[in-house]
Amino acid sequence: MNWSLLVQLLANGLIVGMLYGVVAMCFVLIYKSTQVVNFAQGEFLVLGAWVCLWFITDMQMPFIVAFLFTLVFMTLFGIMIQVVILRPLIGEPVVSVIMVTIGLSIFLQALMNWIFGNSAERFPQVFETESVNVAGLNVESAYLMSLVMSVLIMGGFYLFFRFSKYGLAMRATAFNQQTAQSLGISVRQVFALAWAISAIVSGVAGIIIGMVNSVSSSLAIIGIKVFPAVILGGLDSIVGAVIGGIIIGLLENFAEFVDGQFLNWGNLFTIAPFYVLIIILMIKPYGLFGTKDIERI
Amino acid sequence: MATTSLRPCGDFRTTYKADQFLLQTRWIAIWTMLAIALLGAAPALVDGYIVSLMILIGIYGIAALGLNILVGMTGQISLGHAAFFGFGAFSSAWLNSTTGIPVFFTIPLAGLMTTAVGMIFGLPAARIKGLYLAIATLASQFILQDFFARANWFSGGSSGSLAETVTIFGFPLDSDERYYYLVLFWTLISLFAVANLKRSRDGRALVAVRDHYLSAEIMGINLTKYRILAFGISSFFAGLGGALFGHYLGYVSAEGFTILLSIQFLAMIIIGGLGSVMGTILGTAFIVLLPQFMEAFTGGMLDIFPNALAGLASGQAYIKEMSVGAAIILFLIFEPEGLAHRVKLIRQSWKLYPFSY
């Protein structure tokens, strides 16, 4: 047994898991307020990362300015997607809504590969020190920043939903659209807002992941990896998304450890979450915190 | 004879039996026979490239028909169809190389093997439906893909496996023109089987499960059985199509059966029309021909404006991919019922011309 490797991997798992949690939160936000499963979430990440990188390298902006510009861009992008593509499909069956986001994901992926190229590119160095030593563990500073950002985003979400007027409107809409509408909430605005927030936060997560690894279209795989996390937590629970994300992150790295130490299968860590996903769906279909559907005839 | 001349126009059916008849009017029967005859003569009439495209349409069409049973008739979304398609391709090659059964027979046997696997991966459907099921099938896509890459004894691992050419009584189907007839044979059988399934008790049970599963259960339909059966039937066609695909290429590798192909299968049935047999073939043709069309189109544009669109040349591959995504989105927004619905409208306006009321 190689204990220090295990601890290192679990620490990585926690950090990556927090990022999964953030992306899962975006996913759940869209699902909860608009009943759309967004298969293009991964492409949102990649788009955010590419746009930020483009602002930095081609427009010669400092990182902070580029970051803010990216946020503005992602807001507009999220609203546009909702208005142009998802709004005509309100009330259509599940398969149509799933397929439209899948179509969107194919479209965006090809478009981004075309515009930004399909080779990986690195962010310019943002931090002075490459890695820091925290309690005997070697942690890259980008990882540390991603941890801080994840906690900040989660805290921001909590405050937004707890105290702001729009957060309240969104919770009301998620609870019951008709009642919310009759109380004077514009459901259209709430839908657009949900997509905008989700796009912004995905963009931020994309930038963070792009800084930790590098920016390429393969980042979009996170949009798929989020599914086990979301299902584990329950499709409509924001807390569940965070916890599910952390569990999947830990599990992935634990699987890598077991694989590397004992099994030597090669790629257990990419596939383990999906086995877990099937098992959860068989035992507890609505996840740890999801609302159980009660149907009446 | 007087009664026949007084027959009202339009097709009226007075018995349930007539209503269930497969070829409902004489003209439909005539057109069907004509279409089959034309398809049979096709290799002699069109050039080799078009024949190869028709083979692809037939192969993908069989698999898409299977998916349409699952999604269009039973209402269960599957994002893992390409994995079953791939499983069929591998298992036919594997059966042939290990047991020595002639390829002609391993193709349907591969379909049966895939049925078994499909029913295992369909087990979650006993408890879950809708989105949750879609995500479970997504997991089965990744698990099977991982299995293909890992199981050296079955799929040859990362190097893939060779699929023998089909021979019938020592007569090799080694050219596109010859293979075309094998694909045509299986395509027609599949079309006939699915069209028949739709009017059988089991088919109606599947539709009932889609439309209102609680009511279906109350009417005495065993939900678990039919949900898993739908997976089984759909996987059979996926495996059959996959086996034909494997022997057509002569070489099967795990890279060909990714989630992107699963999405393309879904796109075929959505563009064609959910639950429609003819629509499935139309949709398949659309998805197979769309990249060809886009290539010709961008090529043509480049010839006309060589300078203004210089950037287009490098993006041709991406434009092909984008067109698939865009087609899915546009169809869902503007023609959610698919090509089958559009064809029906055209036929109706033709029939009712000039008084369309």
Structural summary, described in words:
The complex is a heterodimer of chains A (297) and B (357). Chain A is mainly alpha-helical. Chain A has a single domain, classed as ABC transporter involved in vitamin B12 uptake, BtuC (Orthogonal Bundle). Chain A has eleven helices and two strands; from the N terminus they run H-H-H-H-E-E-H-H-H-H-H-H-H. Chain A has a two-stranded antiparallel sheet. Chain A is globular and about 60 Å long. The mean pLDDT of chain A is 84. By secondary structure, chain B is mostly helical. Chain B has a domain of 240 residues. Chain B is built from 17 helices and four strands. In chain B, helix 5 crosses helix 12. Chain B is globular and about 60 Å long. The mean pLDDT of chain B is 86. At the A-B interface, helix 4, helix 9 and helix 11 of A face helix 7, helix 13 and helix 16 of B.
CATH class of chain A: Mainly Alpha
Strand line-up in the sheet with most strands of chain A? 1-2
Radius of gyration of chain A: 19 Å
End-to-end distance of chain A, in Å? Answer: 56 Å
By secondary-structure content and strand pairing, the structural class of chain B works out as: mainly alpha
Shape of chain A: globular
Based on the structure given, which CATH architecture of chain A is correct?
Orthogonal Bundle
Average the pLDDT over all residues of chain A and give the rounded result.
84
Helix content of chain B: over 70%
The helix tally of chain A amounts to 11
List the quaternary state of the chains. Answer: heterodimer
Largest sheet of chain A: 2 strands, antiparallel
Largest sheet of chain B: 2 strands, antiparallel
What is the percentage of strand-forming residues of chain A?
A: under 5%
